[in-house]
Design brief:
This protein has one domain: Beta-galactosidase, Chain A, domain 5 (Distorted Sandwich). The strands form four sheets. Strands 7, 8, 9, 10, 11, 14, 15, 16 and 20 form a nine-stranded antiparallel beta sheet that branches. A five-stranded antiparallel beta sheet has the order 6-5-13-18-17, with no helix packed on it. The protein is mainly beta and 335 residues long. The N terminus is likely disordered. The protein starts with a helix and ends with a helix. Helix content is 8%, strand content 39%.
């Protein structure tokens, strides 16, 4: 058995346990069949007791009842899920699994701020509403058109159209998202978000430290849990990285259930759009976001009909940032 396979199998066994899929709990008035999409199809010899053949490439599917959650699997294990429940504050991705452990590097909900949902996109203080925290009565981002557009041996791509709406107001923003997850090699994969936000009303975001795009990591990757926070400039920790510009910011650490495995996640800051020379919001408890809203006293304003667009990249990797060419992956996307 190769060293990598030993670590992978050990991580899988350590993290295994009983799970419940809420997607299988439908209401009586909902259709009970699945509209399942699997690409490029299951292949390879079946293993005894498995039933279906082992999947050695990506598959993607979503149940066609209740709220659509799109699931992505590699080697027949869940890598990521895009969650769009109508009772959620906003759509988000969880889990986002490490390439070796297959345990999520991001947290679905964690103290001290449980409204940080894994891979997030949102903001508060938007036209008097809040699309980041608090209850749905303060504002909500709704998924309206989730579609799986590509699923190949190493690539999954899906799109969504989301509406930002306060219950007492007309919709203020419509954003179109394209997520692309590419399994680069056994050590890392990338997740790109290409988005376009159309202002349906005049929109103003006041100075705030909440938003815009980023990740909340599992405790074992955060400095408070024994992990490390580092920037592309080699600065370490919240004190040295907060408000500083950088190409990327990353967390990494030994995995809690198998300390022999080290994994991490990096978020890239685009060079220009949607915000130029964006300073970073960083927290040692596990939050990173290339977010300018805290650093402009009069906030940001857009007129009705204007469009804000950009591309963010996340890299999920094994080892430390030195083991992955993050600068090269940044250049690949933005140069």
């Amino acid at each position: 058995m190769q060293r990598r396979d030993f670590f992978k199998n050990a991580g899988i066994l350590a993290a295994s346990g009983l799970t419940v899929s809420l997607d299988s709990c439908s209401r009586a008035d909902e259709p009970q069949d699945f509209n399942t999409v699997n690409f490029p199809g299951k292949s390879g010899p079946a293993k005894p007791g498995w039933g279906d053949p082992q999947v050695e490439h990506f598959t993607s599917y979503y149940p066609d009842f209740a709220d659509k959650n799109l699931w992505i699997r590699k080697d027949n294990q869940v890598i990521a899920a895009y969650r769009t429940g109508s009772n959620q504050k906003y759509p988000y991705i969880y889990p986002l699994a490490g390439p070796i452990s297959r345990v999520s590097v991001t947290s679905e909900s964690a103290q001290p701020w449980p409204h940080h949902r894994s891979v997030f996109m949102g903001a508060d203080r938007v036209n008097g509403g809040n699309y980041w925290q608090e209850g749905s009565a303060q504002g909500q981002i709704f998924s309206t058109k989730l579609e799986l557009t590509k699923a190949e041996a190493d690539t999954v791509q899906f799109t969504d159209v989301c509406v930002w709406k306060h219950p007492q107001q007309e919709p203020i923003i419509e954003d179109t998202r394209k997520y692309t997850l590419i399994w680069k090699n056994p050590d890392y994969y990338t997740l790109d978000l290409d988005f376009s936000m159309k202002m349906l009303q005049d929109v103003h975001i006041e100075k705030t430290n909440h938003g815009f795009f980023g990740v909340r990591v599992e405790q074992d990757l955060s400095p408070q849990g024994g992990g490390t926070l580092v920037s592309s400039d080699g600065l370490v920790g919240e004190k040295n990285t907060f408000s500083k510009p950088a190409k990327w910011m990353a967390f990494y650490g030994k995995r809690r259930f198998n300390p022999a495995v080290v994994e991490g996640v990096a978020v890239f800051c685009p060079p220009k759009e949607p915000f130029e020379n964006c300073p970073w919001f960083t927290r040692d408890y596990g939050n990173i976001s290339p977010m300018p809203f805290l650093f402009k006293e009069d906030g940001f304003s857009w007129k009705k009909g204007e469009v804000l667009k950009g591309v963010y990249r996340i890299v999920v990797f094994a080892g430390t940032p030195k083991d992955v060419d993050l600068n090269g992956l940044w250049d690949e996307l933005y140069s």
